């Protein structure tokens, strides 16, 4: 019997995982600078949370959730995204009672039953942030700035920021009627997906890649905004301009989740087949109340880490931190062999990356291993050296070697 991973999942192996560690490290470090603190919420939640939070008519809830009944007869769902769980955690733990904003971030797996392709998986990972407790448009801009900085600091080029305002639910309802009046005469020439979206979620029709040619004269939601929405959107743009963050307005940008109000934005880049969205987010002023909390506004984003890593590979960005070791300790002879366990233990305790052989290999094979691991030094311990309390230290780059007192080995390596 042979087992294989499920479709749409990945093994991230040593050699590739270093890029992940780098990207995740950057996300954490950036969040510290922006004063966002980590929150870890469960991988599964009650199904109803996502139905309410993400929205009944979204693709995610209609077609993509991993939902199951547990042994206690509860309907549970593997989280398809991070926002609903974070907001639930914010409400349940009464974070709204604190005097400061809740600026939270998370890194972890999400699950959607989607058709797997390059850049689209069934288990994927997001780096997300959620800032809950303020309506100020400067906070929307801060969240966009954090996302933008993430891409630039991991070394990606060509990431574009697109912004839009999707107004309030009332404004969207009125716009929906205008849009349907425009779309209805075209129904027959639109693709099957668009036809079904017209009935369920007409704003999403504008997102369709194949039918763009039919939408050149489509009404713009920006013309339907009221004064409050317009002022908010203008301030977001002003703040981005002040920070020198390049952006484009895309009045057709509608996100695939229902909770957005006012600002919606996406990070886009070319290089992963047909997929160009690498991250997205926006403001959600009604979500906290919708899932039973107080009337607190929020704004956040989710950035796909698979897509980030794929783009880094596509752009051939160098791995800033290679996985190497400091020293490979080679034992020659039985007594030396016993000593080596102790030696590598002591070196590691001093913060030195040390490795040794466990396969009884000859010296030559061990030296090759040291080379493959990128060891800066090898330390060779023979029975003779052992008697003298010494070890032969060889610098791999130069080939220089000299005996060093065993008791001074760690200090030598740390010099
Ligand atoms: P989303 O647009 O559904 O938003 O997902 C955000 C990002 O997650 C996408 O831009 C993409 O990079 C990545 N992603 C989504 N689905 C997949 C998949 N099947 N395979 C690989 N990557 C994927 C949200 O999830 C919102 N919770 C974002 C947000 C946070 N809005 C406000 N706060």
TrEMBL record:
InterPro entries: aa-tRNA-synth_II, aa-tRNA-synth_II/BPL/LPL, Anticodon-bd, Anticodon-bd_dom_sf, His-tRNA-ligase, HisRS-like_core, HisRS/HisZ, HisRS_anticodon. Residues 8-320 form the Aminoacyl-transfer RNA synthetases class-II family profile domain. Signal peptide: none annotated. This is Histidine--tRNA ligase. Its main location: cytoplasm. Keywords: Aminoacyl-tRNA synthetase, ATP-binding, Cytoplasm, Ligase, Nucleotide-binding, Protein biosynthesis. GO terms for cellular component: cytoplasm.
